[in-house]
Write a structure and sequence with these properties.
mainly beta, 0% helix, 4-stranded antiparallel beta sheet, 7-stranded mixed beta sheet
Length: 124
């Protein structure tokens, strides 16, 4: 059974840091793209970052230079290190993977596995 489980969210002040984890079971992450997405109240889901073997990682311009995506194949886990957090980063963060192998840049977002989400709140 395929499962993606996010953790690491919480309440932080602006300028603070969090590291999110996405633990994957049911397939080996080395063969797949893994992406981080977020959704704030009243807004549509947006892509944050993505990692895959076929190309360099993807970062949305809003987080470039502040967030870093990485993976640990031994733990079958993908991380999102978030530094210099801003109030506008507040959202529920989800990790996801396509059901077919491939790179981030060929991901159609049409047939995917999703985690349950973890809340990130940035507030002074």
């Amino acid at each position: 059974e395929v499962q993606l489980v996010e953790s690491g969210g919480g309440l932080v002040q602006p300028g603070g840091s969090l590291r999110l984890s996405c633990v994957v079971s049911g397939f080996t992450i080395d063969n797949y793209a893994i992406g981080w997405f977020r959704q704030a109240p009243g807004l549509e889901r947006e892509g944050v970052s993505c990692i895959s073997r076929g190309s360099g990682p993807y970062y949305d311009d809003s987080v470039k230079g502040r967030f870093t995506i990485s993976s640990d194949n031994a733990k079958n886990t993908v991380y999102l290190q978030m530094n210099n957090l801003k109030v506008e980063d507040t959202a529920v963060y989800f990790c996801a993977a396509p059901k077919v192998q491939g790179s981030c840049y060929k991901w159609a977002l049409s047939d995917d596995y999703w985690g349950q989400g973890t809340q990130v709140t940035v507030s002074s």
